[in-house]
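Journal club side-thread
Mid-discussion, someone asked how the predicted structure for our own chain would compare to the paper's figures. Pasting it here so we can look after the session.
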Amino acid sequence: MKHSFIYTFLALASFTFLACEKDDICTQEDPTTPGIVLEFYDINNPTEAKIAPGLLAYVQGSNLAIQAEGNKIILPLQVGQTQTTWQVTLNAQDQDATNDITDEIILNYAVNHQYVSKACGYRAVFNLEEANPVSNTNNWITNLTLQNSIISSQNETHIKIYF
């Protein structure tokens, strides 16, 4: 009788500990939906990064705008769409509107949803289309090269832009 009580107690204690879950908290380290990373390079010296002065990007038909200084910009893609069109303007952050040059970048992609955790939910991973991943209107952007067609992280360059 004494042994059956001990075995019952151990079985209940085991089930209690096995039923416990770790704290389900979404932290900064958990993966989130990434943006596409565009990096700018000098057309005359393709290995040299180039600063895009006064860069302003906005989604066509939206109020979403992103300003950047330097040679990189991270742009979010629309999760509920298969195409996002960005208007990207050089020299947009100065007082002289006559030197603004706008180019249009069209990104075509498929969206895949990945489960992260109960607290974080799902995130989107984007796959740029193979046939026509990106195009532009060639106003100030001379050339585009695709570096990585799977957008699952913001730690790498996806498209190099030469101007």
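Post-session note: The first strand starts at residue 36 and ends at 41.
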